[in-house]
Amino acid sequence: MSYLRFDKTEMIRLEESLQKEILRTNRAGAYHCTTIVGCNTRKYHGLLVIPIPEIDDENHVLLSSLDETVIQHGAEFNLGLHKYRGGSFSPKGHKYIIDFDCEKVPQTVYRVGGVVLKKEIVFVHHENRILIRYTLVDAHSDTTLRFKPFLAFRSVREYTHENLQASRQYFEVANGIKTCMYPSYPELFMQYSKPVEFVFKPDWYRNIEYQKELERGYDFNEDLYVPGYFECRIEKGESIVFSAGIAEVETSTLLSEFQKEVDERTPRDSFKHCLINSAHQFYNKQDDDFYVLAGYPWFKCRARDLFVSLPGLTLSNNETEMFHSIMATGEKAIRNFINGEPVSVKIYEMQHPDVLLWAIWALQQYSKFTSFDECVKRYGKLVEDIMSFFFHQKHNNLFLHDNGLVYTDGKDEAVTWMNSTAYGRPVVSRTGYVVEFNALWYNALRFSAEVCRSMGNDTFADRMETTSLKTAESFAKVFMNEHGYLFDYVDNNTIDWSVRPNMIFAVAFDYSPLDKKQKRQVLDIVTKELLTPKGIRSLSPKSVGYNPYYVGPQVQRDYAYHQGTAWPWLMGFYVEAYLKIYKMSGLSFVERAMIGFESEMRYHCIGSISEMYDGNPPFRGRGAVSFAMNVAEILRTLYMLDKYNNQL
């Protein structure tokens, strides 16, 4: 049985199937995302969603969906599914689904009387083009297929509504048409692998609703334009491929091209293979630069996310060359930033105080995966330059104090990963001596000192080692409290007593300013108060302000974002800390703790991990449907477990 297979009973229950989403990307920013029954429930959903840099920095939905209709003996059976005003679904094509499988590519099988039709979808790598293959598996009489495209031509942040400005003009191309609703957009080419008839019958389908947007407190309905429909005969055993993209294609190659794309896919036949496949979805190649998108469907490439995700997405999968490619882009951004230049690549939020420290952490993981000498050879100068930048006090919001700790101002602007804001102010004003910033700093000092010494820069290495001694002494005095856990931040007389997960980094990193007893105390508190089956809570239920449910309108969700929700990416550091303390004896506990993530492969965005989860049962997935840091750190956890198990 396929690892990601859903039968008819699961598909026809819309209260369940509409909660399960699929995501396919082209590794260049474009994507296809919808529910497993093909009903769009978000404004971000679409069959062909692409970046259009000529317009703005957002993705745009060109082709929202494609309704298929099976025609036999004059009877029409529409396989599409849309939700309209008032909660009514039409045309309820999900009732014909007998099987859905997503092991290699998304594959839906429909049965209409004696007709069995298989539909498979792939995204062409590095092209803004999606392919759908239809195969008539069985039929007892003449069969015709009709295809009705629903067009949007809008940003994922907006909606389209019936208007007189939308162009109805179209032009015939090989086995299809091209059309463009608005002048600023590229033309959309819709073509088939065999001749089809296009019937021009323009109309607007009004008041289509998106349930997820309604739940999130946003506008939730739009109108979609249908220019007409395509129609063709299909024989039993025959396959037809539909192509939608922004350039004309050679239709005679569509069948072979589809199969070639299928053959290149990583089968999602296990938990690990699902995560590897998901990891590849975040890769984003733009010209000669390689990026990691922070998540789908709305995130861009954010600096912190890139460096946290990089080792897990690449090294854990033995993809060292991809690490090199992405880090090459990251180094451009780093050097722009430390030189006071505009960032020349599309990496955002480089100014956040911990970003460069996470970059050093990523290089430290590279040194462990390859070798220390290889890391020094490739990235030693970069490490040296970053640390010199800090020692010369050139960062405008991370200041090295005489006690060896680093200080940041986060009162008016959210500068840590806990970055939610409401009414223009940080929900959690983490400011002053921030605990993970200083854990990162101590780790960077120790690792960078080794790097610089191996490069012959003993003077700088000595300075970093001397500073690290002060950092370690001050860290315990400032952050450790009598209850056995670390303050989240300390700013003069302001001390945050909240039990938060950020203290786990001080236990997980290779170089820790804590002694063994202190590490165990911190780990025990995190285990007792923050550990869930879906990650580590952002706030303890015992702390003031605990809010575990990320639901409701935007402001309500902003206040819950880091006030109790569980984050899977923190699990990688928790596991690393746990194994450092308990070593081989901790394996069985850690393996049991990972079970909740494997079960997640069949829920929310199937085969991937959502941005966050409710902090209380049943720990529902929330936010972005697929999140890079989460996938990366669970992959890194599996890599760590493999290494420990191989020692047995």
TrEMBL record:
Residues 285-636 form the Glycogen debranching enzyme C-terminal domain. It comes from the Bacteria. Residues 20-240 form the Glycogen debranching enzyme bacterial and archaeal type N-terminal domain. SUPFAM superfamilies: Six-hairpin glycosidases. InterPro entries: 6-hairpin_glycosidase_sf (IPR008928), 6hp_glycosidase-like_sf (IPR012341), AGL/Gdb1 (IPR010401), GDE_C (IPR032790), Glycogen_debranch_N (IPR024742). Transmembrane segments: none annotated. GO terms for molecular function: 4-alpha-glucanotransferase activity; amylo-alpha-1,6-glucosidase activity. Signal peptide: none annotated. Pfam families: GDE_C, GDE_N. GO terms for biological process: glycogen catabolic process. This is Amylo-alpha-1,6-glucosidase. The lineage of its organism: Bacteria, Pseudomonadati, Bacteroidota, Bacteroidia, Bacteroidales.
